[in-house]
Each structure stands twice: as structure tokens, then as C-alpha cells.
Design goal:
about 0% strand
Length: about 350
Amino acid sequence: MGTNPAVTRWTAVLLGIAFAVIAGYSMKHTLSCFLLSFVIAYLLDPIVVGIERRGQRRIVGIIVLYAILAVFSVFFFAFLVPFLTGRWQDLLHNLPLYLQKLKSMSLELKHRYTPVYGAAEWQWLIDSFSGNLDKVTGKFGAGVYVAASRVAFNLFNLMLAPILVFFMLYYKEAIKRELLRWFPPLRRDLILQIGNEINRSVGGYIRGQLIVSLIVAVLSAIALYILDVDYAILNGLFAGAASILPFIGVIIATIPPLFFAYVKFQSGVALLKVIAAFSIIYFIEGYLIKPLVFKEAMNLNPLVTIIFVMALGELMGFWGILLAIPIAAALKITIEHVRSGDFREP
């Protein structure tokens, strides 16, 4: 009994994907550097294409782009990096003190307020919370050491990325032609069509998400500064990064500001002000900014989106979270072409 060619082909594809996932996980540092360079090149390529359309060679467009980025880099490393580094070091130094203060507040709350019903459960809850704070404080130093040990490699990625980005931009068409050679000639036009659809959908999403994250970060930092919450800029940057996560990003983004606001002011009113500020910001993001920024909706199932983010986040960390939705969108577009019969033998 002969083997079905379609089954053999899809088995080979699945095995290839499994091998790529295992290889990527075992070489996650190399993969991280490659993905960083790829995303940067992907975002910068439209600028180079725009310069090419004005009649300039691609290499000229890349040189002009790198000259502009060099000016921005001088400003970034001369002013922003020292400021953010100073605030980060100050946070690392003071965070154990914040945790200890929160523990003292919880113990004070335990003695001040004892409910009529469930007093034992209330005391157990406060004691458990205090014990967990001690564990967090104890592990904080180890976490800082692990984070510091990764700084050197991240700096190496940052230095290597411009070189990789240059070659990705310069050899873009050659890479595209080489990849197409791996597909059957009768399928190349279809693969190009699918690639263009994925590029429009994913490219619009990534560029739009960066704009949305930047706006959320700026609005959050301004709001927290007005409310006099400590580390407003760092909390704003965290809120912008958390906005990448679908559905649960808004919840995660509010946790650090609530923590700093409560420890500083020890007031429920301060918590309500922070919640109100973030509610307004995310209302503006969801109903004003995103409809303007995202030209094409991804139209992904919310459950599938959450599962994809969790799975790829567990597998690839930050890059899995960032690329989960674009990968899901690419798979959806491909599956739609498979269901429509575009891949059937002519």
C-alpha cells in the first residue's frame, strides 16, 4: 500500500517546524539577537523602499537611514540612557525598602482591623502575605544578580544588531529570491500572494502596536507624574510594554503604579485616582487610538490569541509574547488559503 504524498509532505513540514522550535529553544540567545535584528530591519525597510522610489539606489537609502539613526543614537545614549539608568538603579536600591514598608503596613492593618466574622482567616491571610513579602525580599538580590548577568549579552546583541540589520536590508531581494527557489515553480505566485497578505497584516500590526505602546507610555507617565506617584517614567514605560499583551495587559500595567501609590500615600483615594487615570488612558487607546492606527484588523479569536501568547511566551520569553499575534495571523492567512483549495494539485 503506497504512502499518500500529501501526508508525507505535511509530516515533513511538521517535523521541520518541531526541529526549528527545538533548535531555537536550545540557541535562544542567538535566536534573540536574530529576531531583534529582523524586527528592526522589518520596521525600517519601508523607509528604504520610500527612498528607492525617489530614484535612489538601495545602498544609498540604507546609508541615509543609518545617518539619521546615528544622530538619534547620539541623543539617546547621551541623554536618555543615563537618565533611565539612574532611575532604574534608584528603583533597585529602594525596592526592598518599599517591600518592608508594605509589610509593616500589613501588620499594622492586622492589629488595627479585626473583622467580627472570620477573624482567624483574616489573620492567616495577613500572616501569609507578610511571609510571602519576606520571600520576595530574600529572592530580590538573586534576581538582580541574574538580571545583571544578562546585561552583557544584551549589550552584545545591541552592538551586533546594526550589522545584521544592514545585511538584511541590503540583501532583502536576494534572500527573497533564494527562499522562493525552495518552493515548486507552480506555487511561487501563490506563495508571493500569501507573503504579501501576511506582510500587510503583520507589518501594519507591528508598526501600529509600537505607536500605541509609545502613546500609552507617554500618557501613563504624564498621568502618574501629575498624581505624584514614584517612578512615573519607569511605570509609564512598563505600561507601554504591557499594552502589547492582549486583554490582560491593562491589568498588569496597573499593578506597579498601585503598589507605589499605596505605599507612598497609604490611602484608598490614591488607588482610585490611579485606577481612574488608567481607565481613561485605556479607553482612549481602545476606542480612539487603535481604530486610527490599525488600518487592517487581525480578526483573531480571543481564546486562540491568549493561548498563543501564553504558549510562545513560555517557549521564547519576550520575543514569544511580541511575535505571538503576528505568527497567529500568518497561520490564519495560510490556513484560509489551504481551506479554499489554493494548494490543491492543478
